[in-house]
Specification:
Length: 107
């Protein structure tokens, strides 16, 4: 999982995470399915916030191409992003739960 620091522009903020999930191996070997998780939040009058989230499956690739493909996805999504934090879970449910808890989600 690659998590990028949020970007703020005025009253708007956006964030991006890229997930590489285990996929069924094929004749060429192991595979990972990439998903992008994006959010955009905007502060509105009265202290309210409007938020939009999107989760998009980007494709399935060999694990050795992940870093290069993530770099390309970031360029297509507008570039200018800081270096992401990379967290490896390795398919371990306990590590995934800890990661979600670290990120403020539910474990």
């Amino acid at each position: 999982m690659w998590t990028f620091p949020p970007r703020a522009l005025g009253a708007k903020e956006s964030g991006l995470a890229v997930l590489a999930l285990f996929a069924e191996p094929d004749a060429r070997g192991p595979r990972r399915t990439l998903h992008t998780l994006r959010y955009e939040a905007e502060s509105l009058k009265g202290g309210k916030t409007r938020r939009a989230d999107s989760l998009v499956e980007e494709g399935t690739v060999p694990p050795d191409r992940l870093d290069r493909i993530v770099d390309g996805m970031v360029r297509r999504l507008g570039g200018g992003m800081e270096t992401p934090e990379v967290r490896e879970v390795g398919g371990d449910p306990a590590r995934w739960s800890r990661l979600l808890a670290d990120l403020g989600g539910q474990a």
